[in-house]
Amino acid sequence: HHALPDGRLLVHAVSSADSFATYRCHVLHALTQATALSPAARITVHDPRETMSPRMVTKSDTLQQIGSQSLVVPCVAHGHPVPQYRWYQNRGGMQVALPPTSVGIAPGSMTRTSTPQGSSDEGVLLLEPGRLQDTVAIITCEADNSAGRDTMEIRVERSTMGLIVTVQPQVLVVDSGTEGRLHCLLGPHHLPP
After folding, report:
1. What are the pLDDT digits (tens) for 75-89?
2. Rounded to an integer, what distance in angstroms lies between the CA atom of residue 126 and that of residue 156?
3. pTM of this structure
4. Where does the Ig-like domain start and stop, copy by copy (predicted)?
5. Which of 144, 186, 138, 148 is nearest to 166 (CA)?
């Protein structure tokens, strides 16, 4: 299992045992500590009898990498046998393979994993801060098996903009028993790349 920062849950190497499990999303509000629990969801597992070319489940998307945060890029395809994933970056019109050390994330963690061939059976890529030099990069995910292949493109926009909160005025002098007003201002702030 891998929980993505946007709330999606990836279940890797699904087996028939997963069809007996139920999944719920449990949300905790960081400020109020209020919690909410989603209704139960289940996975229906079928065992394919014949080979099937990979078919992308995730769709092409535009993702934002802000400041010094790592970015998790999902790419999931159905296929039999289980597809292998490879990642490429479009540089000057050429597809350049991303090095094996940047491919995949160990399930449930942000630890890098790699395979000698530069492919992974988990469709997740971790882009660490500074990995992309361009402010906009096109990443291609390729899923292939013995029956065929499918690809999708992800546009990654790297931003050095973050948010800051300020209070104005910083010093407020009021008479006892009167009202004092402080204004909370939310605005953009440049972060170091």
Report:
1. 889 888 989 999 998
2. 12
3. 0.65
4. 48-157
5. 186
